[in-house]
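User: For my dataset I need records formatted as: sequence, then structure tokens, nothing else. Please produce one.
Assistant:
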Amino acid sequence: MIREIPLQPKSGLLTLIVAVPTCLVGAILCFVTAANTRDGAVGIPAVLLGIGLAITMFFLLVGLFTVSPNKARVLTLFGRYVGTVHSPGLWFVNPFMLKRHISVRVRNFDSEKMKVNDREGNPIEIGAVVVWKVTDTAEALFEVDDFEDFVVVQSESALRNLATRYPYDAHDGEEGVEIALRSHTQEIAEQLKVEIQERLEQAGVTVLEARISHLAYAQEIASAMLQRQQASAIIAARTRIVDGAVGMVEMALEKLNEKDIVQLDEERKAQMVSNLLVVLCGDKATQPVVNAGSMY
């Protein structure tokens, strides 16, 4: 496996200062000598000298290159990897070296909405956003054919694999135990980041962040699943109401017995509990009936 080799080349400023005027002088010498000479034997060497000087200086200019911030140049010499230049500026290297440009800026990839089945077999739509950057330029250029396309394909593959390992939503009573796609977004994001990073390790890419950007049931089951969620919410609300009503009834009986306001036999207690539960758990307001006669 090819690893990145940091390279610090020579500054190209001196080469630029020397090469440009020398190249111009050589070109001028060629034209002036060719135009003014009368002796061909004397003129030809001068012309050849000017041409050679101009070609040499022009050849040196080919070895100059610039590096912008957050960008790099990967250098190869006759097919052999030499190193990577990250430092911004004007540099000079062997003119025969091939200088390939590559960006090391932070990028993001927004996947398309994919239709997959969760762990329970329910069809869902899912999409993700992946933030990444190139950290090893040699691996990015030489280990994979096209590292940008590699990031796209492997990210979507990891997202699809992750969606099949978890349910869309946790079942009743499992909210704190089982990890679900909808209820545990932070855990799912961390797991997605780890899985994508494992797949992109050989491409010299580091994943900075990965999170789910879209999550929904597929259209063919969306209506049925919405009813299921509504039923679960109603059951949870009813359970809480009943728990509260039982506590209030228990407290009422304890207060009546403690203050000795009225003595109730078991039958009257059962009737009182029934009436209180109807009042507290009913969907609509109850209509009380006032007994103006005896105590019972």
